[in-house]
Write a structure and sequence with these properties.
The protein is an alpha/beta fold. The protein has 25 helices and 19 strands. The chain has a 7-stranded mixed β-sheet. A 6-stranded parallel β-sheet has the order 2-1-3-4-6-5, with helices on both faces.
Length: about 575
């Protein structure tokens, strides 16, 4: 039996760690690894058209499955293209292993063709970034990288010169058990005792939830019921906490709606559950705050805390709920539920006024119809910009749907690449890319990846021929819009030319039929919807700081518009409020 080379050993270890795909673009320095993948039936090479897509796809797959995923780029310019998607994965806490292949080891430091220093370049967007400079470092270095990615929920990067990848691997020692999942983290008794005291002493408690509440919906609801607490959420907490929630008071932040802002400011005690919500201007500075997070570096970096609790939300609430004293007074909760319903009643009018006849089509209408027609377990990937607004306000979570976007990194062009990674996890599951024309056109070359692999992703293109979020920022800053207009082709015709299903929608009455037809189509499909670039209405009192860079500083609700089925949920919750 021939001796393994380093590339073969590298691939074998990825397989042992549960990696099923390696996303990337081939290149000479990657050839030994790609060939090792070709000869290993347990892993596939996914050939994308741009390495940035590879990183986004790997990050999305990791967020869907919770397992380690991998991507690769060839030396120099190839692996540099990974960096934006890796930043996004890292900030989304997605376990991703990136292989940055490198120039010949004998040439490093000599200004060789395509030379960069990937082990240094990727340090800011990873927990671990190291260079394999000798075959003797295998397999320990790769195992260490994998354990960093999984154990700390983020990116690890391994830089590997092509010549070393082709060298004979050292005799492999006994196989080391690899970390493949994270443990639960229980807070210490002292922190639990103190949190119980704070909750029992407070008359009005509000919970504000982020992505760290994933898998803890039942525990949050039980806790909220016992202490009669309104429950608000950040954007990344929406899919995990909003559904089946009789205590829901909406979302805070730039895209906020409802009474979340009031609930967090009018309470005696605010408990932040699994959120690294970045907009500290939305957080109160005159109420007591406790924060629960599994990442200790998140504790207190957004607001001054009265108590920091290191633990995951589910385990913390399992310890906490039996010990707190049940509250009987619902006055604060019911007041916030009413404020929430009233707030939604006010903004929903912008959506209901003849929107089904408006041309160009209101994007709110597109999102609402999409929400109605999409599967109950669909995965939505969402472009940064106005698509974030429509997803936040119209896509209804139910515990089975997923909504993934570049919510922490805020990158353009993420939706289509993320849809690729999401669809590879399950070809039978409906995956919908909510793309803006700006984001889609930035990486539209990878629409060809859908066709090449016959991935049944449905791209719903919100095409207003502009970078409308940037236009909003300019408007708020008192500047005329400039450089924000896109001269677009007929994207549906482009899709058909690529070999996919494509349809263009210019009138509201065409929309439902076009979406149903795309959803029935067994392969990739694109629905190019011409939408109104002026659909967003702006409240009269707004300052520059409110929108620029998503750094909202003074307003509780900036973007006015409809809220879809959330109003129905708020009305239903309001019916549960006891009448005197």
């Amino acid at each position: 039996m021939a001796k393994q080379n380093v590339a073969e050993q590298f691939v074998d270890i990825l397989v042992r760690a549960g990696v099923e795909r390696l996303y990337g673009v081939v290149g000479d320095s990657l050839n030994p690894v790609v060939d090792a993948v070709r000869r290993n039936s347990a892993i596939d090479w996914v050939h994308v058209r741009h390495e940035e897509t590879a990183a986004f796809a790997a990050g999305a797959e990791a967020q869907i499955t919770g397992k380690l995923t991998a991507c690769a780029g060839s030396c120099g310019p190839g692996n540099l293209h990974l960096i934006n998607g890796l930043y996004d994965a890292h900030r989304s806490m997605a376990p991703v292993l990136a292989l940055a292949s490198h120039i010949p080891s004998s040439e490093i430091g000599l200004g060789y063709f395509q030379e960069t220093h990937p082990d240094q370049l990727f340090r800011e967007c990873s927990h671990y970034s190291e260079l394999i400079s000798s075959p003797k470092q295998m397999p320990r270095l790769l195992q260490t990288a994998i354990q960093h990615a999984i154990g700390r929920s983020g990116v690890s990067v391994v830089s590997l010169p092509g010549d070393i990848a082709d060298d004979p691997a050292p005799d492999q020692p006994l196989q080391t058990a690899l970390v493949t999942s994270r443990p639960t983290v229980r807070p210490g008794d002292t922190e639990i005792d103190r949190l119980v005291e704070m909750i029992d002493a407070a008359d009005k408690v509000t919970l504000f939830c982020g992505s760290g509440t994933a898998g803890a919906h039942a525990e949050v609801m039980e806790f909220a019921e016992k202490i009669k607490s309104p429950v608000g959420h950040a954007l990344r907490g929406k899919e995990h906490i909003q559904y089946d929630n009789p205590y829901d008071v909406g979302m805070s932040g730039l895209l906020g709606y409802g009474a979340a802002y009031e609930a967090t400011h009018e309470c005696d005690l605010l408990i932040l559950l699994g959120t690294d919500f970045p907009y500290n201007a939305f957080l109160p500075d005159d109420v007591k705050i406790a924060q629960v997070d599994v990442r200790p570096e998140h504790l207190g970096r957004r607001s001054k805390l009265d108590l920091a609790v290191w633990g995951d939300v589910k385990e913390t609430l399992r310890c906490l709920t039996p010990r707190v004293r049940a509250k009987s007074n619902r006055r604060f909760l019911d007041k916030m539920l009413k404020k929430h319903a009233d707030a939604l009643e006010g903004v929903v009018k912008a959506y209901t006024r003849k929107v089904d006849k408006h041309v160009p089509i209101h994007p709110e209408y597109v999102a609402a119809v999409l929400d109605e027609l999409a599967d109950d377990d669909a995965v939505f990937t969402v472009d940064t910009g106005m698509c974030n607004v429509w997803a936040a306000r119209y896509i209804s979570p139910n515990g089975r749907r997923r909504v993934i976007g570049s919510f922490s990194h805020g990158s353009m062009a993420n939706a289509l690449p993320m849809a690729i990674g999401a669809q590879f996890t399950d070809r039978r599951r409906q995956v919908v890319s909510m793309s803006g024309d700006g984001g889609f056109s930035m990486l539209m070359g990878d629409f060809l990846t859908l066709v090449q692999y016959d991935l049944p992703v449905k791209v719903v293109l919100f095409n207003n021929s502009s970078l409308s979020m940037v236009e909003l920022e300019m408007l708020v800053a008192g500047l005329p819009s400039y450089g924000t207009t896109n001269k677009n082709p007929d994207f549906a015709a482009v899709a058909r030319a690529c070999g996919a299903h494509g349809v263009r929608v210019e009138k509201p009455k065409q929309l439902a039929g076009a979406l149903k037809e795309a959803f029935r189509h067994k392969g990739p499909a694109l629905v190019d919807v011409v939408t109104d670039p002026n659909a967003l209405s702006i409240p009269p009192k707004i300052s520059t700081e409110m929108v620029t860079g998503f750094a909202l500083s003074a307003s509780k609700i900036v973007l006015d518009g409809g809220v879809g089925r959330m109003l129905q949920m708020a009305r239903s919750n309001l019916r549960n409020v006891p009448r005197p």
